[in-house]
Amino acid sequence: MGKPAAVVWDRSFLGYDLGGDHPLNPVRLDLTVRLATALGVLEGVELRVPERATDEEIELVHLPGYLSAVQAAPTAGWDVGHGLGTPDNPVFERMHEASALVVGGSLAAARAIASGETDRAVNIAGGLHHAMPDSAAGFCVYNDCAVAIEWLLRNGVERIAYVDVDVHHGDGVQTAFWDDSRVLTISLHQHPMSLWPGTGWAGEVGGAGAEGSAVNVPLPAGTRDGAWLRAFHATVPALLRAFRPQVLVTQCGVDTHREDPLADLALSVDGHRAIYQAFRDLVNEHGFKWLALGGGGYELLRVVPRSWTHLLATVLDRDVDSNRPLPAEWVAHATRVAPDWPLPASMTDECDPVHQPWGGDAEEPVDKAIRDTRRAVFPLHGLDPDDPRD
């Protein structure tokens, strides 16, 4: 890597706090940065402090009336509407300000890339991919992913690929660019029959005039590292080669982990590390710029800090040995945060994320998903859905 990667971080991100026992607890961000710091991943890295996105910037994706609702919600009483005030999306103090800061963090990463300062940037507080133009959804108030993509399009970038590896379908980003052939959205997620939001079928391929711009790989519950990686390598690299994006935006949710309490895939921290390294290999091979965002992940102590430390290390080309023990000072702090929470000993789950390449004729459940997706979208990109070489 040439130019140093940009890392956007400030403790003010912790203000995006949905309160109480809500699954999206910002402690996961704090613990990630503490772990990456203790392991030396962030040594010498000048962290970029975000500023809140302006209303005009947020309105690149969201409707003005929705912004008004978010701004008024903390004092508006119970009848808020727009998906606000629900168990998933409770109203909290300074909700607009905290949400706008998350968007501002992803915009800061996008600006660093567009200006030529860097070829890679990461905002682990971002990745709020479910928010719709006029409503909150799935713990997401504003869709920082979509705002950053739209901003890049308006500032000189002509083709962007968005790859979402969260366990939940990247529905908000797909919706934002459904009719836009300049943006390729790819989502690998748990099958919509078994997980919210119930979208992301292989047949969802984009709107009129943008057919093939949406790609969905719905994976069966219980999918492990090897099968997940087979699905990824059977779809994503060929599509990126055909589409030739200038910028790759990745939503790196880690709720695919086998210990995540909200979903049913069965990946490991080692599988997550392999995903990030696969992204980096594609970036290096094709010369893409890379904007990496966080996302879901609700095993707050055992999974998210380790997985996203591997993400930061991969973006920065400072890979952490999987067998590296967790630093004593980090373990001590995490134990104070949750005294009864058993912690892992190292940066690995002791899994080997090796995968068998897709050959077109295997009969495991994941292979049907691969075939369905390839047959739905590969011909729209001039690719042969039945040829493993494509």
TrEMBL record:
Protein name: Acetoin utilization protein AcuC
Family that this chain belongs to: Belongs to the histone deacetylase family.
Keyword Transferase: no
Lineage: Bacteria, Bacillati, Actinomycetota, Actinomycetes, Pseudonocardiales
Annotated ranges, domain Histone deacetylase: 22-314
UniProt keyword Zinc-finger, yes or no: no
Pathway: Ketone degradation; acetoin degradation
CDD domains membership: HDAC_AcuC_like (cd09994)
InterPro entries reported for this sequence: AcuC, HDACs, His_deacetylse_dom, His_deacetylse_dom_sf, Ureohydrolase_dom_sf
A Pfam family reported for this protein in Swiss-Prot or TrEMBL: Hist_deacetyl
Keyword tags: Acetoin catabolism
